[in-house]
Amino acid sequence: MHVTTAMQRSQITCHSANQAFLLSKNISIPTSILPVTMTSSNPPKGHFNILFFAAAGSFTSKHVESLPAPLPLKKLFETLEERYKGIKESILDHSLVTINLTYVDMPSGEDDGSEELIIKEGDEVAIIPPVSSG
Amino acid sequence: MSRKNGNYTNNHMGDAAQNGVRDSLAPEEFDRYSRQMIVPGMGKDSQLRLLNSHVLIIGAGGLGCPAAQYITGAGVGTIGIVDGDVVETSNLHRQVGHATSRVGMLKVESLITHLRALNPLPNYVAYPFPISPENAAEVIRGYDLVLDCTDNPATRYLISDICVLLCKPLVSAASVQKSGQLIVLNCPPAPQGLVDNKYAPCYRCCFRKPPPAGSMVSCGEAGIMGPVVGTMGVMQAGEAIKILASGLHLPGSEGGNLREPTLLIYTYELENTIGPFSFRALKMGGRKKNCFACGENSTLTLEGIKGGDPNYEQFCSLPSAKHTLPAEERITASEYNAARISGKLPDGHILVDTREKEHFSFGSIPGAVNVPFGKLLTSAAKIKREGGAGHGILPHGVAEDAPIFVVCRKGLDSQEAVEKLKELGMDNGGKRKITDIKGGMQAWKEEVDPTFPFI
């Protein structure tokens, strides 16, 4: 069940191939169905992308957003709370956070001596709340 | 099939074969499993491990049905199924192990009927009751591997805790609306307290805290696409078969073979039909040192769990932010309707329906306008952040002093919507009335219009 960043790249390729196909056939795409996808395109210069999965996406009404980089990981939640009031308590406090498809521990507030993680330009951060139903 | 103590068992292979460890295949098995046995990496030993294994599937719903089909097809020797529910018609679009003719039957009984038709050889054990802190250890103890196919946070924590204490690998999947998650936990299994970063995580290592009660929606409430939950269930079976065939569940398999724990996320997009598939595999960490269940100072015990410590229900029902509005800000559905019919609703009033647009598309109270709750919250947050008039939340052309009524599906979101509108100053300091319709469209169906298509 390993889908690596290579897969991610191939998704983007396949995605643009789709668009290329549509363009080559001179088919216009209504803006309402233009891809607003999890497989986000590269963030603008000086930004990172943040993906909102499941309930996080419902809360923010979007799947992806670009935020200014660099940003210390420990400032991530307050940055999001400024934009989406209530998101910390409703979503972030019980969600997983990944950077570039890898789980990261959220800093606990007090200085535990560990090296400070900084979200860099071009990174992809994801907010993943648990899903419980079945 | 004989029925003992409420369990269905299938004794056609003979007791000797059931109690002892199998070291050869019967001709019927040789034929039945031939196509999977010749796959590179499988072979006779792997098939025998499947035949000798005991798998417990907890939940016979949207995940459990597809998972059970493939577990059954693959020739797992003993398959236990736990579920206390009965089959309903609204289950059938996704719960492929049931049938229209079995609506009303216990799900375990219905699913085993289906599985037995697929493959009569395995030994099926039915547990026609919900998993609980009192029964979980007893039920799980006799199995080699557990599939969590349940539908709520409390049972997910309970099952994971028991699997840690009994050293059982756990394949956990979940799905709602258009999202699915899959993770293999506690595999290879290691005793509680071993933490030097080479042991696999448990559910609590990944999700330390449950979401606030009320924020979690069930498939019944939020909806679920059949292929999404089906995909997750099938993949669950795939992971389970891999673990069993390679013997990773057997004692002594730990050490040296820790696979990188991975959380697979599937996002299915209905809005973006030309988009790419969206699967993401996220690298998870190992066991957490301070994990409540498997960490080094854990005090979790089987006796404790059975006796109610920890209290899973309480842990998963932390106070939510929902309020109850004072009586003067509420009106019942029948009162609203009476005022509507007799023309006593205030002039120029507006009725805001905060259900999602899909619900709204099946019908609404005459004159209602749809402002989905999620959108309302987002607009409210934006107005607070960037300034601007709260009035922008409402459709164009609504007078700034028009009294507002708010209705939702079951009466919770509408109360929160009333509070949000007031926070934005839309009550003009109390001069404009904003009223919640109690109990939402559910109450409307019960009190006013029994034919209303409530979902």
From TrEMBL, chain A:
Modified-residue entries (Glycyl adenylate), positions: G134
Subcellular location: Cytoplasm
Pathway membership: Cofactor biosynthesis; molybdopterin biosynthesis
Gene Ontology terms: biological process: Mo-molybdopterin cofactor biosynthetic process
1-thioglycine, modified sites: G134
CDD domains registered for this protein in UniProt: Ubl_MoaD (cd00754)
Domain of life of the native organism: Eukaryota
rRNA processing in keyword set: no
GO molecular function, one term: molybdopterin synthase activity
HAMAP family assigned to the protein according to its UniProt record, in alphabetical order: MOCS2A (MF_03051)
Subunit structure: Heterotetramer; composed of 2 small (MOCS2A) and 2 large (MOCS2B) subunits.
Function summary: Acts as a sulfur carrier required for molybdopterin biosynthesis. Component of the molybdopterin synthase complex that catalyzes the conversion of precursor Z into molybdopterin by mediating the incorporation of 2 sulfur atoms into precursor Z to generate a dithiolene group. In the complex, serves as sulfur donor by being thiocarboxylated (-COSH) at its C-terminus by UBA4. After interaction with MOCS2B, the sulfur is then transferred to precursor Z to form molybdopterin.
Record family assignment: Belongs to the MoaD family. MOCS2A subfamily.
The protein's name: Molybdopterin synthase sulfur carrier subunit
Species for this entry: Diplogelasinospora grovesii
UniProtKB/TrEMBL annotation, chain B:
Cofactor(s) in the UniProt record: Zn(2+)
GO annotation terms (biological process): Mo-molybdopterin cofactor biosynthetic process; protein urmylation; tRNA wobble position uridine thiolation
One GO CC annotation: cytosol
Positions of ATP binding: G62, D83, S90, N91, L92, H93, R94, K107, D151, N152
Catalytic site: C219, C408
Binding note for cofactor: Binds 1 zinc ion per subunit.
Keyword check for Transcription regulation: no
GO molecular function: ATP binding; metal ion binding; molybdopterin-synthase adenylyltransferase activity; molybdopterin-synthase sulfurtransferase activity; thiosulfate-cyanide sulfurtransferase activity; URM1 activating enzyme activity
Similarity remark: In the N-terminal section; belongs to the HesA/MoeB/ThiF family. UBA4 subfamily.
Entry protein name: Adenylyltransferase and sulfurtransferase uba4
